[in-house]
Amino acid sequence: MVRTAILSVAAACTLFALIGCNNRAEVDALQPAQAAELKPMQQSWRGVLPCADCEGIETSLFLEKDGTWVMNERYQGVREEPSSFASYGTWARTADKLVLTDSNGEKSYYRAKGNALEMLDREGNPVASQLNYTLVPVTASLPVTPMPLRGMYVCIQGRCGDLYRLRDRKTAAGRQ
């Protein structure tokens, strides 16, 4: 009697395990479609974000096809110079967020909200405020004029006037 009960429980567990593994084909079929949607693409965004001690921060975000980004921020109503800064780094998309990692390794988060991008807080959650934290799409391309940059700079063999995107130290050491 006890032996029959143990065999029945073992058979039921085996049956549930086999049923649980049966839907792998559906998961495999969905993954290639998702990967195609999340490929890096060139996009430009612009808007005025709230500022605690100025009129607003005129922000332009440029996402490049190679997975890099440049952001130009101009503080409105500020008399001190420079009032405009640029930062850069790499970007990636998750299922629901755009993650920007700057040259210092700090992350900022955005999410799609209609056709716009909404800036999220440092943990990747929506900002609890009535203020406008959105950037709208524009057709502008990355500016070619000089911009003051924030972050770490690397001078390679006397070429400090040129800015290179350095992926790792091997690339930096091998560049002439």
TrEMBL record:
Keywords: Lipoprotein, Signal. This is Lipoprotein NlpE. The keyword Calcium does not apply. Coiled coil: none annotated. It holds the Pfam family NlpE. PROSITE patterns: PROKAR_LIPOPROTEIN. Residues 1-25 form the signal peptide. The keyword Cell membrane does not apply.
